[in-house]
Design a protein that fits this description.
Blueprint (H helix, E strand, L loop, with lengths): L2 H11 L6 H52 L3 E8 L11 H7 L42 E11 L3 E5 H4 L4 E5 L5 E10 L4 E6 L9 E2 L10 E6 L7 E14 L2 E9 L11 E3 L4 E9 L10 E5 H14 L5 E2 L2 E5 L2 H6 L8 E6 L4 H5 L6 E5 L2 E2 L3 H9 L6 E8 L2 E8 L1 E2 L2 H4 L16 E4 L4 E5 L14 E6 L4 H4 L7 E5 L2 E2 L3 H8 L8 E7 L2 E7 L4
Parallel strand pairs: 7-12
Antiparallel strand pairs: 1-2, 1-4, 2-3, 3-6, 4-5, 5-6, 8-9, 8-11, 9-10, 10-13, 11-12, 12-13, 14-21, 15-16, 16-17, 17-18, 17-19, 19-20, 22-23, 23-24, 24-25, 25-26, 25-27, 27-28
Length: 531
Amino acid sequence: MNPMHSVRSMVATNPSRPSRLQRAFLSLALPTAAVLGMAAHVRGDETAATAEALMHANSLSRAFRHAAEQAIPSVVVVRSETKAKKVAANRGQGQGQRQGQRQGPDRGGENPFKGTPFEDFFKDGVPEGFDFNQPEGGQSQPRSGVGSGVIVDKDGLVLTNNHVVAGADTVTVELPDGREFKAAEIKTDPDSDLAVIKLENAHELPVSKLGDSDKLDIGDWVIAIGNPFELETTVSAGIISGKGRELGSIRRAKFLQTDAAINPGNSGGPLVNLAGEVIGINTAIASNTGAYQGVGFAIPINLAKWVSGQLIAKGSVERGYLGVSIGPLTNEMASKLGVKSRKGVLVTEVMDGTPAADAGVQELDVITAFDEVAVDGPRSLQEVVEKSAIGKQHTVTVLRDGKPMTLSISVKPLPDKIAKRDGSGSRKLSAEDEETFYSEAFGIEVRDKASLPEQVYEGFDGVVVDRVDNDGVAAEAGIGPGVLIRKVGKTAVKTIGDFAEAIEKESPVEGVVLQVRTPRGNSVILLKKGL
């Protein structure tokens, strides 16, 4: 019999039952089809995922584009010009001192960035390659500068940084559409590094939309717009990388931190959210080179609104004050004062005749809230007090000896002499031998303040640290020669006898709080063994 005939016969006679050969073909064909089907499915999923990713990327790109389109028309170039001025030969006084600040320390002058947000980042003065040299007793060179700004009123009000226009003889503002305006009036607030420029004969200008900086969270997208390196209308993107930052040279502002690229020339320009709203005024960079290194700072727009409103209405900023010196609350100090949390601000001094003194605030009180708004540090207390209504009663919540209490206080305007007080500088102490008192337990030796020249610590009583033991408690706490000790605990000391009587009642194991003064101002120090 023909074998093939048998196969065909079997197939014909049993059409519903596949042969072994057919089953073999099927066993190979089915997995192959499944693999091919799965591959097609995977390719389909990848295509869908890529499409979805592109959709999100394009959506974010459109958001950036929208924000830039909304903000750019109101972002301006601010050009400042300073004429040549006569430089006095003696730079220690008047105009000569101010002009001398434009020289680097290696040329016998002060840091040229002093008084600007860049002072903290250029502590050694002028970066290499820059020259601020001026002739002694001759003419200073004319200077020009370029910054940024943002229009906040259609009739020509521009918000920018104080350091962009400070000391300028003429200021010109250029719009993106090419129009130029002269500054008719400039009002500044150096304490917050903000300034308002009133433009001459300006009407119907494009105006920025101001947002709410209190609603910002870390991680929110933002764009910085300005004129870095005179590259006009430059946009850079990033996120809010920190809030509540402090810069030592700007005493009355807490900054937003961003990684959006900010470079020289961006100062005064807006930081904008994805809705196109201005939520900050770009101010400073943290850099070792003077250019972008990933960290920039902006003044929150809510603070800028308050400051600019006062500048426009009054020409200056009226801030409230309590009349206290304050400092952060450390873990050690909190433990010593019987405070369970570090949330609060330590009162280190209460000035006579001030709202705080009238309300009964005491030194070593811990302020935890003002008008029921919690405060967690000196700058946050300062912010809420400065904006509070002048002449009205407010509540201050304090912890005294670990126990909470509420005081009523009437805030007064910050006196000019305090607002302008400068704690910088140094004083040379007399090296003459004087009678001293030595505390072996705390490793500190003091002498009467009367041994110093009259102008040193003028207006303050206390004893002066003469020396400390290198391995003693005082040295461990950071006290050094020249510090004025005003109180031991809450006991005022005027002579070494007062100090000896007070310090011998204290134990280095339990610790004692010293209220001290240095050329930089008042503070408190905890002397405790083993800190």
